[in-house]
Structure formats: C-alpha cells, structure tokens
Amino acid sequence: MSNIEKINAFLVQSPNDSFLLHALALEYIKIGDDVKAKDLFIQLLELNEKYVGSYYHLAKLFERLNENDKAILYYEKGMKIAKEVRDNHSYSELQAAYEDLVY
C-alpha cells in the first residue's frame, strides 16, 4: 500500500484532518502531481486557515507553476497568520521565500 493510499484510508475516518490533508498534498508533490497537491492545500487552508505550514508549500508550488502573483498572495497571507499565531519560525521562512521571489 502506497503512502497516498494509507493517508486516504485515514481520511475516510477524518476527512477534514489538517495534518492528513497536508501530508497527502506533500505526497502528491513527491510524485509530481502539483495540481492535485495545490487543490489539497487550498482545501486545507479553506478548512483551517491557521495551518501555517501549508502556506509555504502552496506558495512554492505556485512558483513552480509560474503563478508568482498567487505565490506572493499566499506568502503574504501565511506571514499574516504566522504573526497572529506567534509562529516566528514559520514567519521567518515565509518572509525569506517571499523576499527571494519579490526582490
């Protein structure tokens, strides 16, 4: 059974579990399915906007898809949420990636 199958089996029991959705999106990135990963990250952030780690991965994904405007949007939103939840480590990572893209 693949990791994707295992995570999907857990999602049957907990379909809105942020950790599982994040993990599944990362698995799709590993196999090169950026579109499926993007959809999962967006779904996750609609369910739980405070799941800070997903902003970085989603923004990076948009960069790979050459959608820099959307990447900037998610970096900025991620930095805002990271500040709200006082996650300084995530804020720093998001800010560094944002600055690499913008400047």
Structure report:
With 103 residues, this protein is an all-alpha fold. The protein has one domain: Alpha Horseshoe (Serine Threonine Protein Phosphatase 5, Tetratricopeptide repeat). Helix content is 80%, strand content 0%. It is built from 6 helices and no strands. α5 (68-84) packs antiparallel against α6. The chain is globular, with a radius of gyration of 14 Å. The N and C termini lie far apart (44 Å). The model has no long low-confidence stretch (mean pLDDT 97).
The largest sheet is:
none
Q: Mean pLDDT across all residues, rounded?
A: 97
| CA-CA gap between termini | 44 Å
Strand-pairing-aware structural class: mainly alpha
- How much helix is in the residues? over 70%
The portion of residues forming beta strands comes to under 5%
The general outline is globular
Task: Write down the domain tally.
Answer: 1
Query: What's the CATH topology label?
Result: Serine Threonine Protein Phosphatase 5, Tetratricopeptide repeat
The top level CATH class name: Mainly Alpha
Tell me which CATH architecture applies here: Alpha Horseshoe
Which spans have pLDDT < 50 for at least 5 consecutive residues? none
Element pattern in H and E: HHHHHH
